[in-house]
Write a structure and sequence with these properties.
Layout (H helix, E strand, L loop, with lengths): L2 H10 L1 H8 L3 E4 L3 E5 L9 E6 L14 H17 L7 E6 L9 E5 L10 H7 L4 E3 H10 L8 H8 L4 E2 L6 E2 L2 H37 L18 E3 L2 E3 L72 H5 L8 H9 L1
Antiparallel strand pairs: 1-2, 2-3, 3-5, 4-5, 4-6, 7-8, 9-10
The structure holds a DNA duplex.
Length: 333
DNA sequence: GTTCTAGAAC
DNA sequence: GTTCTAGAAC
């Protein structure tokens, strides 16, 4: 076996090793455990539920595993409850073509807002037929007793399928970067709404305490700032969540703390862009006229045809004088 | 699975 | 100039 294949095989065993070592384990029972996806979370909250029984993947599931699945779902609900969130905020299910060599059930918040959500393939693995919901798997096992594999060509096609559709509104785009910016807008709105609700709740609670204490308390304490710590990662700055038993994955900081004017902080200012499909276009009246764009004026895939023709050229690219970056790299070597 | 990188697109 | 993508490597 080639060294790279051994390395890949080692990577495929990462979840199993973590399970054995108890690493990143949030909840566990005798039969299964919930691990937090620390290395590459694809949303603000991303967990995986692993059975302790050695089951390679979803294709190895049989009807006899239904009680185990029930138990795994119980653990999923437990971890969601632990985060003080609602199951409706999550997608729960399995990848039909998982990379890992141990069955793992994803419990992922449907914001899909994370710096690790970098490629269109990442999106499509959770938002296409490549992702089978818990309910669907359960039904398949009940009726057929097993899950059939998906042909490799279909997997490949679904991985790269465009346009990509937002899971929260009618927005769609050919450009994955555009979708990521769009998801950020959704996340920002939801987070703002959540925090404002929490603010009202905290205020009510404090008012109650003041009455109980005969107004011994004061309101002079500064309001809590959730963006108290900054960690630079990729294009965004992220900070850990300020509350909860398990900290969330990644969180952006903003140029200022004014809620009416919050923007993501980029390492480099984004260049001016032409009018594009943004959230506004997907609001009520846009439902009947979803996201017209310059991409829609041309055939799909027209902008990014497969570029296989230059593969061989790349191998000799160090000698090319037309690429100053390549020359610089060559000099360093 | 992720990271790195060249080349294309903008 | 930056952003985006796909392929190679790990």
């Amino acid at each position: 076996m080639a060294e790279s294949e051994i390395d890949l095989e080692f990577k495929r065993g990462e979840l199993t090793r973590k399970l054995s070592a108890g690493e990143d384990v949030v909840i566990q029972s005798e039969r299964a455990a919930v691990l937090r996806n620390v290395t590459c979370p694809k949303a603000q909250y991303h967990f995986v539920v692993l059975p302790k029984e050695e089951i390679a993947n979803v294709l190895a599931l049989k009807r006899e595993h239904l009680p185990l699945l029930d138990h795994m779902m119980d653990l999923a609900n437990d971890v969601i409850k632990q985060q003080q969130l609602s199951p409706s905020d999550f997608r729960i299910g399995f990848k039909i073509d998982s990379f890992m060599n141990r069955l793992n059930m994803h419990v992922i918040s449907n914001d899909f807002y994370s710096s690790s959500m970098r490629r269109i393939q990442h999106w499509n693995t959770f938002n296409s037929d490549l992702f089978i919901t818990f309910q669907a798997i359960y039904a398949l096992l009940c009726v057929k007793g097993s899950v059939e594999p998906m042909p490799a060509e279909q997997v490949e096609q679904l991985l790269h399928a465009t346009p990509v559709h937002c899971n929260q509104c009618s927005f769609y785009t050919e450009n994955f970067g555009q979708l990521k910016r769009h998801l950020y807008i959704h996340w920002r709105e939801r987070e703002s709404e959540r925090l404002s609700k929490m603010g009202v709740a905290n205020l009510s609670q404090r008012m109650g305490q003041m009455q109980i204490n005969g107004n011994g308390g004061t309101m002079s304490q500064r309001p809590f700032n959730p963006f108290y710590r900054q960690i630079r990662m990729h294009n965004y700055q992220f900070v850990p969540r300020f509350q909860g038993t398990v900290r969330p994955q990644l969180r952006p900081t903003y140029e200022n703390s004014n809620w009416n004017n919050i923007r993501p902080h980029y390492q480099h200012p984004a260049p001016p862009r032409p009018p594009s499909n943004d959230l506004q276009k997907t609001q009520p009246d846009a439902a009947s006229n979803p996201a017209p764009s310059k991409g829609a004026e041309q055939p799909l895939h027209a902008k990014h045809p497969k570029k296989k023709w230059y593969v061989n050229k790349k191998k000799n690219s160090h000698s090319s004088s037309s690429n100053p970056k390549g020359d610089a790299n060559t000099k360093l070597i």
